[in-house]
């Protein structure tokens, strides 16, 4: 790791409160020491990287991902894929049951390498491997440490293997959370698959065992079936069911939030959990769109589709015909706040914080300021790979190359793991 260096001659922005033309950042022992003009920071014979006019952003947050699905490309589903339940049964639930130590690790490594290339420095992962529960999060943790990103990890508890199998899933979450309470790089959440795969008995068991501060991370109202299931059980909707079971708090992470009722929206308004929309995944599964009139504050996740958060925003923008309210808040301000909740001195591109930085490969030729930054991102950066990604001051990726790992050697191992996984999937 370089101990002390300056990146300069860039357009430096935190995405919402400042933008500096001909800007620079000095980094020392992994921390941002100064942000300013290149001439002021490039002094003496300091180790200097010339960004040649590129746009510099904070490291991005992917607030809902499934690294376990990173090796799924090319798998032929085991049956019909006409609705959400069939997609789960014939692809994802069949896949996650085949995951073992090797495939969990290399799937995470592969997904994280992809994330780095798109400037992501923090990932909230939602893991499932129903036949390899205990110790699965520690394997993913190892992958995060190898690649060098921050992660909020959880195991998705579900009754789909039978109510009798949930205890090990609950314990995997709670033990991991307890062990990482003070960790600077890796933290734990409580993963829940979705209301419709959690019985009344299971929810109450979880509620009794959950430490009060442990946040839940759940698919909430993703498809209409989730809403119907909650209503059949006598609740007003998915958020209402979580609330009634003592699981909904301001620390909750609710992914999707498409099929909700007025009661659900009211609860979300009052309690202010973090809402994560996953537009590419929603289009892929044909489950509808989140109502952004009802839910104004939200983040974006990729839901295992890609590691590309800016690309996901581009899809979101196009799906909504250009009508996105507060796009910079969605991409930068809210992620800065939520990242800082779990990781001290992280999230915002600011002096004193860890140097988590995404340097796009885009050199604007037209005027750029905070008012038009979003359009430079959509039409200039276009969700392309970064020029550089820095996490905790470490340069992880530069000019098309992973810098801290031998990518080709690891790809060979990933290929072997993927082949083994695909063989098991098709057995
Ligand atoms: Zn998901």
Would you mind describing this structure in some detail?
With 427 residues, this protein is of the alpha/beta class. It is built from 14 helices and 19 strands. The radius of gyration is 21 Å and the shape is globular. Helix content is 37%, strand content 21%. The longest helix is centred in the C-terminal third of the chain and has 20 residues, at 407-426. Strand 11 (190-194), helix 6 and strand 12 (216-220) form a beta-alpha-beta unit. The protein folds into two domains: 4-59 and 347-402, Urease, subunit C, domain 1, CATH 2.30.40; 60-341, TIM Barrel (Alpha-Beta Barrel). Helix 3 runs parallel beside helix 4. The mean pLDDT is 96. Zinc ion binds next to loops.
The major beta sheet can be summarized as:
9 strands, mixed
Could you tell me the mean pLDDT? 96
Structural class: alpha/beta
CATH architecture of the largest domain: Alpha-Beta Barrel
Based on Cα principal axes, name the global outline: globular
In percent terms, what proportion of residues is strand?
15-25%
